Amino acid sequence: MFVNREKELQRLSAALQSVESKLIVIYGRRRLGKSTLLKQLLAEKDVYFSADLRSKPLQIAAVASTIEKIVPGFAKIIYPDWESLFTHFNHVLNQKTTLVLDEFPYLVKNSPELPSVIQKITDNKMNDKYNLILCGSSQQMMYSITLDSTSPLYGRCDEIIKVRPMSIYWLREYLSVNNIQAVEEYSIWGGVPRYWEIRKTGEHLEKAVKYNLLDPDGVLYDEPERLIRDEMRTSVLALSILSLIATGSNRISEIAGRLGKPATQLSRIMALLIDLGYIRREIPFGALLKSSKKTLYKIADPFVNFYFTFIMSNKSSLEYGLSDQIWEEIRSKTAPYVAFQWEELCRSAVPLLPFPETRFNQAFRWWGTGPDRKMMEVDVVAESLDKKTLLMAEVKWADHISFHEIATQLNRKCEKVPFAKNKKIIKAIFLKYPLKETTGDFLIFYPEDVINALK
Predict the structure, then answer these.
(1) How far is residue 101 from each of residues 5, 403, 454, measured CA to CA in Å?
(2) How much is the pLDDT for 202?
(3) Which of 138-167 are b and which e, b meaning 16 or more Cβ less than 10 Å from the residue's Cβ?
(4) CATH class of the structural domain 219-332
(5) Average model confidence (pLDDT) for the chain?
(6) How many helices (DSSP H) and strands (DSSP E) are in the chain?
(7) Which of 162, 167, 226 is nearest to 191 (CA)?
(8) Dihedral angle over CA of 260, 262, 267, 268, nearest 10
(9) Are 414 and 425 in contact (CB under 8 A)?
(10) Cα four-point dihedral sign 88, 94, 96, 100
């Protein structure tokens, strides 16, 4: 399966077409399609090797055997180390090629000298006949091996590409679903192409979730736990934090209290989970990230969020074969869960939506007290690029709504928020279904608008 990735392909193709040899790093979590991207890019004359956890001599021999497919007799020589393999490969080539070392952290685990060897090879132009691509799924290890300032390869990479989850636009195209279905599907599978591929094998959503997520033999039953174990020696604390956040413990003090640990002991693991893309910090519009006492922690990835919201806490029941009962529980809570993800999508789309005469920066939620000291919340707040205009919006995910009621609430909030003084305000409402009638100066956006903006 290959969907889009045009931007990544263009950058990689341009680099590989250069006269000079390039050192390229590609990384990102599992299942995002890194290997598929590489195979889409490479030609028959190129070499692709996927490493495993075998010992160093066996890995060197395996790379040599792979190279032999384009260089007859290459594997007949016994290479004592990586440097001899790399230099001989360069010596025997009669045309420019590319060598890909996928799952690169596996190689380094049994050959810790490998980054230094590659440094020597590239610094001394000992690979002038081939490009070298290093690829890996362990984000933390790939960073420390190639991108950390203490690494021998620091500053030597010509391209560094982090493969990220794909947008809901491409999920809609791949699954051939309508806009409302796309929001519902994305709320479960997120932006990971392999999950879409697995979903597509099911006739309908219920069957796909039951078969792949609720069945202990399902291919995704332990998926987030495997992802975390890829990155950490021990996954217990990280999994506990994700479970707590998914079930409503969103402040660091709450998380620490539930774990029985001082909050200061969690700073490192929280930072790592943020760097890996599994959680994010949320602050109200106008607050400073470093100093805000209102910081909340949310799960950033829809699939991981779905898993820890509905699967993790029900594993005992699922092991007893109670998937039908758990599905009914999930279905009863689907509407508020999808509504949460829909709200996230709407905020993400704000800088990309075609507002008349202005563009907006990143959108935030805002919560705080009004002039009457009562708590209030606005779903979407964003400031224009010229800082003269505010966007304030409400987000709803319901089959039936009262436009008059929503409009009245939003008008009141616009009058009460403490940050709107001397600002022009654009009011908007994000809805699930089109309205028959609207009144007033409100912009209305629907799933199609949001999804198309996020292409």
Answers:
(1) 20, 56, 32
(2) 80
(3) bbbbbbebbbeeebbbeeebebebbbebbb
(4) mainly alpha
(5) 94
(6) 21, 12
(7) 167
(8) -70
(9) yes
(10) negative
* Per-residue pLDDT, 1: 59
Nearest one of 357, 348, 404 to 380, comparing CA atoms: 348
pLDDT digits (tens, 9 = 90+) for 163-220: 999 999 999 999 999 999 999 999 999 999 999 999 998 889 999 999 999 999 999 9
Question: What does the pLDDT read at residue 289?
Answer: 80
d(CA 194, CA 452): 22
How deeply is 441 buried, as exposed, middle or buried, from its count of CB atoms within 10 A (0-12, 13-18, 19+)? Answer: exposed
Q: Rounded to an integer, what distance in angstroms lies between the CA atom of residue 390 and that of residue 393?
A: 10
- Identify the three-state secondary structure at position 354: coil
**How far apart, in whole angstroms, are the C-alpha atoms of residue 343 and residue 395?**
6
Distance CA 169, CA 185 (A): 12
Of 312, 309, 387, 393, the closest CA to residue 349 belongs to 393
> What are the boundaries of each domain within the chain?
6-162, 219-332, 346-453
286: left (phi over 0), alpha (psi -120 to 50) or beta: left
List the one residue out of 441, 309, 431 whose CA is nearest residue 380.
431
100 forms beta bridges with 48, 133
Banded model confidence at residue 2, pLDDT cuts 50, 70, 90: low
Mean pLDDT of 9-25: 93
CA dihedral 41, 42, 43, 44 (to 10 degrees): -140
CATH, range 6-162: 3.40.50.300
Q: State pLDDT tens for residues 35-63.
A: 889 988 999 999 999 999 999 999 999 99
Sign of CA dihedral 398, 399, 401, 406: positive
pLDDT tens for each residue of 387-412? 999 999 999 999 988 999 999 999 99
Integer Cα distance of 47 and 67 in angstroms: 6
Task: List pLDDT tens digits, range 273-317.
Answer: 999 999 999 999 999 887 778 999 999 999 999 999 999 999 999
CATH of 346-453, one of 1.10.150, 3.40.1350, 2.60.40, 3.30.428: 3.40.1350
When pLDDT is averaged across residues 329-345 and rounded to a whole number, the result is 96
CA distances from 152 to 48, 103, 121, 206 (A): 23, 19, 12, 49
- Give the mean model confidence (pLDDT) for residues 80-85: 97
